[in-house]
Automatic annotation (TrEMBL):
Pfam families: Flavoprotein. Residues 12-104 form the Flavoprotein domain. This is Phosphopantothenoylcysteine synthetase/decarboxylase. It comes from Nonomuraea roseoviolacea subsp. carminata. InterPro entries: Flavin_trans-like, Flavoprotein. Signal peptide: none annotated.
Length: 181
């Protein structure tokens, strides 16, 4: 197996409103070191958890959390892959149901239609993980080709995998998608 290419393409990192979003700035350099051009999108609540100025600096682009207004230029290049981490109960359920009431969920619904490899990493409390809608919607997203990295039986402090583990899983998702093409 050869070395990884210098440029892997455009990676959207979508962060939702959960405590792990405060550390998403650790994921950006890992993705960049793997050759990705990173663009960060947050849900409205996710924006409250992340360090927007730091992410702007790291990516060289602004963090987006709202739909653009008519007449504003399109700002995101097409994605080659997407990481949704942390993905909340609300985002998983709205995304699977096609309820695009936030820019982040609308973007996820749209990129699925282009066949872009997507890795979702839910982070939620155990009672929410046991909700029938969550399990059904995770299965729905998986049916649509989304890789979901989630262990409902993991202890609370271990539910969110490391950013390094997430990058390993992304490599696997992208490799599998490209082998099918």
């Amino acid at each position: 197996m050869g070395a990884e290419p210098a440029t892997r393409g455009v990676l959207y990192v979508i962060a939702c409103g959960a405590p792990a979003a405060a550390d998403v700035h650790h994921l950006v350099p890992l993705a960049q070191a793997a050759g990705w051009q990173v663009h960060v999108v947050t849900t409205p609540m996710g924006e409250r958890f992340v360090n927007v100025p730091e992410l702007d600096r790291l990516t060289g682009d602004r963090v987006r959390s709202a739909y653009r207004m008519p007449g504003e230029p399109k700002g995101l290049p097409p994605a080659d892959a997407v990481i949704v981490a942390p993905a909340t109960f609300n985002t998983i359920n709205k995304w699977a149901g096609g309820i695009a009431d936030t820019f982040a969920v609308g973007l996820l619904c749209e990129v699925m239609g282009f066949g872009v490899p997507i890795l979702a990493v839910p982070l939620l409390k155990a009672p929410l993980a046991r909700h029938v809608a969550f399990a059904r919607n995770v299965a729905c997203l998986e049916e649509m080709g989304v890789r979901v990295l989630f262990d409902p039986d993991a202890p609370p402090e271990s539910r969110m995998p490391s950013w390094e583990r997430i990058m390993q899983e992304l490599r696997s998702v992208v490799r599998e998608r490209h082998s099918r093409e």
